[in-house]
UniProtKB/TrEMBL annotation:
Pfam families: Rotamase. It comes from Flaviaesturariibacter amylovorans. The lineage of its organism: Bacteria, Pseudomonadati, Bacteroidota, Chitinophagia, Chitinophagales. One of its GO terms (molecular function) is isomerase activity. Residues 1-20 form the signal peptide. This is Peptidylprolyl isomerase. It comes from the Bacteria. Residues 114-211, 216-319 form the PpiC domain.
């Protein structure tokens, strides 16, 4: 990826030279110092084998080829356009999230993951009357302020169905347990204190932070659940309690937990897995259940039978993985996946939309809101508006930057997004309008990302230029050099003296994926060279074979070995990929001899390709004259 920001001691000089100075021109195009140095650094990272001056020549040649590909219109070929668009779609989500602050959310989640909060809750539903709900919450806050117990006030005012049993206590919550806005409310409340009142789409919320503790980590456990059947009587529940005690006694005497769970547990999912539960973290389950299982002090410990609203449970601790204390790349990557899958992304997108609007402008046009909503109803709900409307499908509603969004765009958006996620009906039009404005800003950003983000622009340019380079090389050099048999034969006939065998041998070369495989096969083949094909059959295509005539220099370890018929050379490791090769010599051919066209074809293709490319580059340099800014180049070389 081309990068605009460079680092490293070798490039400190860039600060004084690289301020968009032109390094060279070709035709009407220019290349700046930062562009060249970014490419140089990327392609010589950790190598240091190509001098800056030599690389400049290679770089100029590549730019000439890409420029010619654009002149010939290769960048408009359907496959080129499709490849570039596919890459764009793959990269967009990362850039959308990163610019809007996902990294900050990941760090926030890591800090919050270190602790749990024991939380109590009062909830007042709006039920279509926000004023009444707000007043009711004010009364609850007033009573709490006068010193009344939270549980009493919660039972009097809260509309959470579980409040009659738990007095509003939710138990321990952890990061990702609650919707993000409520999580913020909880984690921003001090231990022992009441939170501010938070309004959500459902109503009003108030928390009390009862206590905090370090997060216990992730618990692996297994359970036996004796669930209450529908309509269970007290006698039924007593019978299940008796069975639970009996199973517990058997477990204490050494009975196999998995066997009993499979046979007796009513939790179908875990029973089919020998009682094993999914990994447990704080805030996932009933507080009574979590209190029991996280109290188990060591692996293998067993709870006594305990009761929840679901039935009688017996739980065995398998292991406990502590919460990571260090933000390693692996930990942050796992948290990032959780962040991107959570409702936090809606918050992130809202922040991004605000940034885009502030930067390029987001301005509604003047139109009649009521007419727009009636027009929408007429199409989506088939309701007759009853009045003449000033809205049509092409009416401009909103402008973001230089992009206009019309009624057609609005209808497309609300057609896909007008219903609430919980299935409780359609969203009100004002809410949809706010969402549409946000979505339009994001859409503008996606369509103009190259203008916002230099790194993204660099990635796209690099991919596009790489594709153009490959395409024009295939058409101008590689394809003709491989497929024009008449031209190849003519080149061969003009250069016969260049294609000679030097001490050739007939041989079989064996290519193994690693040295160990090569040594094993080498040992077997060296014992019975004539049976090499039989030996190879036992390796299931792990070893590739090339049987041909070769120059001595092409034989692995050929320079170190007397190449007599029947000789098996020692394996030679390829340093680039750690593969290994060795050879079996079948026949010697001392001295020199001319190669036939068929024998020399590979060499002829390579040489003819070089000739074609050299001639073509001369033509490109004539079409796009290159002028190097020598003083700037000299300063760069001194700086390097």
């Amino acid at each position: 990826m081309l990068k605009r920001i460079l680092s490293g001691a070798a490039f400190l000089f860039l600060a004084s030279v690289a301020s968009a100075q032109t390094l060279f021109t070709y035709g009407r195009d220019t290349v700046t110092v930062p562009d060249f140095l970014a490419a140089y650094k990327k392609n010589n990272a950790g190598k240091g084998t190509t001098s800056l001056n030599d690389y400049l020549d290679l770089y100029i040649t590549s730019r000439l080829k890409v420029r010619e590909a654009r002149r010939l219109g290769y960048d408009t070929l359907p496959n080129m356009v499709a490849d570039l668009q596919n890459l764009r779609e793959q990269l967009l989500p990362t850039y959308l999230n990163d610019l809007a602050g996902v990294d900050g959310l990941v760090q926030e989640a890591f800090e919050r993951s270190k602790k749990n909060i024991r939380l109590a809750h009062i909830f007042i539903a709006e039920k279509g009357d926000a004023a009444a709900a707000a007043l009711k919450m004010q009364q609850a806050v007033s009573e709490l302020g006068s010193g009344k117990p939270f549980a009493d006030v919660a039972r009097r005012y809260s509309e959470d169905p579980s409040v009659k049993d738990n007095g509003g206590e939710l138990g321990w919550i952890a990061v990702f347990t609650l919707p993000y806005t409520l999580e913020n409310l909880a984690y921003n409340t001090r231990p022992g204190a009441l939170s501010a009142v938070q309004r959500s789409k459902a109503g009003y919320h108030l928390f009390k932070n009862i206590a905090e503790r370090p997060d216990p980590g992730t618990l692996k456990a297994a359970q036996i659940l004796l669930a209450f059947p529908p309509g269970a009587t007290e006698a039924d529940k007593a019978a299940l309690k008796k069975r639970a005690d009996s199973l517990h006694a058997r477990l204490l005497k050494g009975a196999d937990f998995a066997t009993l769970a499979t046979k007796f547990s009513n939790d179908v999912v875990s029973a089919n897995n020998k009682g094993e539960l999914q990994d447990l973290t704080a805030g996932q389950y009933d507080p009574v259940f979590e209190r029991q299982v996280f109290a188990l002090a060591k692996d293998g410990a067993l709870t006594a039978p305990f009761l929840t609203e679901h039935g009688w449970h017996i739980v065995k601790r398998r292991s406990l993985v502590p919460r990571p204390a260090t933000a390693t790349p692996e930990v942050l990557q796992a948290l990032r996946a959780s962040v991107e899958a959570s409702d936090r992304i809606a918050t992130v997108r809202g922040v991004l939309a605000q940034k885009i609007g502030a930067q390029v402008g987001s301005t509604p046009h003047s139109f009649n809101n009521e007419h727009l909503f009636l027009y929408s109803d007429s199409l989506l709900e088939y309701k007759k508006p009853g009045i003449a409307l000033s809205i049509t499908e092409t009416t401009p509603l909103l402008r973001v930057g230089d992009q206009a969004f019309t009624t057609a765009d609005w209808l497309k958006y609300i057609g896909a997004n007008r219903f609430k996620a919980d299935g409780s009906g359609a969203k009100p039009y004002p809410q949809l309008w706010d969402e549409f404005r946000e979505a339009s800003a994001i859409e503008y950003y996606k369509n103009h990302l190259e203008q916002f983000n230099a790194t993204f622009r660099g990635q796209m340019e690099e991919f596009r230029d790489g594709n153009l380079f490959f395409e024009i090389m295939q058409r101008q050099v590689w394809g003709p050099a491989q497929n024009d048999t008449a031209a190849l034969e003519a080149y061969y006939n003009a250069h016969r003296s260049s294609y000679q065998w030097t001490d050739p041998v007939d041989a079989v070369i064996f290519y193994a994926p690693d040295l160990a495989t090569a040594r094993a096969a080498h040992t077997q083949i060296a014992k019975k060279p004539a049976a090499w094909a039989t030996v190879l059959a036992t390796y299931d295509d792990k070893i590739a074979v090339d049987s041909n005539r070769f120059d001595r220099g092409a034989i692995p370890n050929g320079a170190k070995t007397a190449l007599k018929a029947g000789t098996v050379t020692a394996p030679l490791v390829n340093a680039s990929d750690n593969s290994a090769a060795f050879a079996l010599i079948l026949k010697e051919h001392p001295g020199t001899a001319p190669r036939s066209f068929a024998e020399a074809r590979g060499l002829v293709i390579a040489d003819y390709q070089k000739e074609l490319e050299a001639k073509w580059i001369n033509e490109l340099r004539a079409r796009y004259p290159v002028t190097i800014n020598q003083p700037v180049l000299l300063e760069l070389m001194k700086g390097k």
